[in-house]
Write a structure and sequence with these properties.
By secondary structure, this protein is α+β, with helices and mostly antiparallel strands. A six-stranded antiparallel barrel has the order 2-11-14-13-12-15. A four-stranded antiparallel sheet has the order 3-10-8-5, with no helix packed on it. A hairpin with a 2-residue loop joins β16 and β17.
C-alpha cells in the first residue's frame, strides 16, 4: 500500500514538472501579432449631435377668473378637450363690502334723481299740452328724464354685478362663468370646488383655474453647446425620439436658435426650438423628455476607413497599408469623422487594405 502511494506522489510531481516546463517553453517562444484589416471604401459620413430636451405645446394658456369668488362647480377636468368660449367652471361671488355699499348708494341716488326728473317731466308735460311752455323747455326735461332712467338702469346693473357677478342685461356673458379662451386640451385644473380664486390685477397674477393648450402644435426645446451652435441653421431637419415611447420617432424642423447663451453646469449653452411633426396617432403628452438627433456636417460618397486604424504622431496622421505579407506605414490626410469612420482626403485609394486593431497573439512554433 505504501509502495503504491509513493508511485502516485511521484507521478503527480512529474506531471507538475512537465506542465511547468511546457508553459515556460511556450512563453519563451517569439509572438506573432495578428490584426484586423479594413478595406478603404466609399461611404456616406455625417457628424451628428444628440440634444436632450422636452416636448411641449407652443402656446399654453392659463385661464383665470374675471372676478373674485369661490369655485361653485367644475364642468371640465384635465385630459378633456375644450372649445373656445366653452364654460370650464362657475363661481359663487364674494362681494367686496366697500364696493357693494357704494353700489347700493349709487342705486338709491339714481332713484332719487329719476323720481325728481319724472316729476319735472309730468309737470312740464301738462304745461306743454296747454301750450304754456316752449318746445325747447319741454325737450330739456324730456332729455333729463331719459338720462335719469339710464343712470338708474346702469346703477342697478353695477349693483347686480358686484353682488351676484351677473346682471339681468348681460346674463349671457356672466363673469361668474369661467370660459376657455382657446380651443385645445385641458392640461391641468389646479383648483377644486370650494377653493377661493381671485382675478388678475396690478398686484398679483390671479388664480389659474385651468391650463389649456393646442396639442397639435408642439415644439421641442433643448440646449446646444457653444462649440456646436455655430454649425446650426434654421430650417435644419431633426429626428426626435421619446424615451417613454419605445420605437416612436418623428421629424422636426429647427426654427429658433437663441442669440444669447445661458450657463448650464458651468458650460455656455444656447436654447433651440424645433417645430414638431408628430404622427397622426398623436401619443405625445406635454412635458415628455425627448432626444433630438441633429446632423451638424455630412459628406456623401467619400473614401473612408475606421478611426481605429489611425496612428498619430505630432501633427501627422498615419496608417499601415498592406504590402504583400507585411504593412507599410503611410501618412494620410483626413477629414470629417462620425466617431466610427473618418474621411480620407489623400494618401489612400479605394481597395487599399489598412491594418486595424490587434485581435490575438499566436505562438510561432
Amino acid at each position: 500500500m505504501k509502495k503504491k502511494l509513493k508511485y502516485v506522489i511521484g507521478l503527480l510531481i512529474a506531471l507538475i514538472f512537465i506542465g511547468t516546463f511546457v508553459f515556460l517553453f511556450k512563453k519563451s517562444r517569439p509572438e506573432k501579432e495578428v490584426f484586423n484589416e479594413y478595406e478603404v471604401a466609399y461611404m456616406d459620413i455625417s457628424r451628428k449631435t444628440l440634444i436632450t430636451g422636452q416636448i411641449g405645446p407652443r402656446n399654453e394658456v392659463a385661464v383665470k377668473p374675471q372676478i373674485n369668488g369661490i369655485i361653485a362647480e367644475l364642468y371640465k377636468e384635465a385630459g378633456q378637450e375644450v372649445k373656445e368660449n366653452e364654460v370650464i367652471a362657475k363661481l359663487k361671488v364674494i362681494p367686496d363690502m366697500n364696493s357693494l355699499s357704494a353700489a347700493q348708494s349709487r342705486v338709491r341716488l339714481a332713484d332719487i334723481n329719476y323720481n325728481q326728473a319724472k316729476a319735472n317731466y309730468d309737470r312740464e308735460k301738462a304745461l306743454y299740452d296747454k301750450k304754456l311752455v316752449s318746445n325747447e323747455e319741454f325737450e330739456q326735461v324730456t332729455q333729463a328724464l331719459q338720462q335719469a332712467r339710464e343712470e338708474k338702469s346702469a346703477a342697478q346693473d353695477a349693483l347686480e354685478i358686484i353682488r351676484d357677478g351677473v346682471s339681468s342685461t348681460n346674463a349671457k356673458s356672466s363673469s361668474t362663468l369661467i370660459r376657455s379662451t382657446i380651443s385645445g386640451l385641458i392640461l391641468d385644473v389646479p383648483v377644486k370646488v370650494g377653493n377661493s380664486v381671485i382675478q388678475a390685477n396690478t398686484l398679483n397674477d390671479g388664480t389659474t383655474v385651468a391650463t389649456v393648450a393646442d396639442m397639435n402644435d408642439l415644439i421641442f426645446k433643448g440646449n446646444v453647446d457653444e462649440t456646436e451652435v455655430g454649425t446650426l441653421r434654421e430650417g435644419t431637419p431633426l429626428k426626435i425620439t421619446i424615451g417613454a415611447l419605445q420605437d416612436y420617432s418623428f421629424d422636426a424642423v429647427l426654427e429658433y436658435i437663441s442669440p444669447k447663451a445661458v450657463q448650464n453646469n458651468g458650460a455656455n449653452q444656447f436654447e433651440i426650438r424645433a417645430a414638431v411633426k408628430p404622427q397622426s396617432d398623436n401619443k405625445i403628452r406635454s412635458g415628455y423628455s425627448a432626444n433630438a438627433e441633429l446632423v451638424l456636417e455630412s459628406a456623401e460618397h467619400v473614401l473612408a476607413i475606421p478611426e481605429s486604424a489611425l496612428e498619430f504622431s505630432g501633427d501627422s496622421t498615419f496608417v499601415y497599408v498592406k504590402k504583400g505579407n507585411d504593412y507599410e506605414r503611410r501618412a494620410i490626410t483626413t477629414g470629417l469623422s462620425d466617431g466610427l469612420n473618418i474621411v480620407v482626403t489623400s494618401g489612400l485609394k479605394e481597395g487599399d487594405k489598412v491594418r486595424g486593431t490587434k485581435i490575438i497573439k499566436n505562438y510561432e512554433l
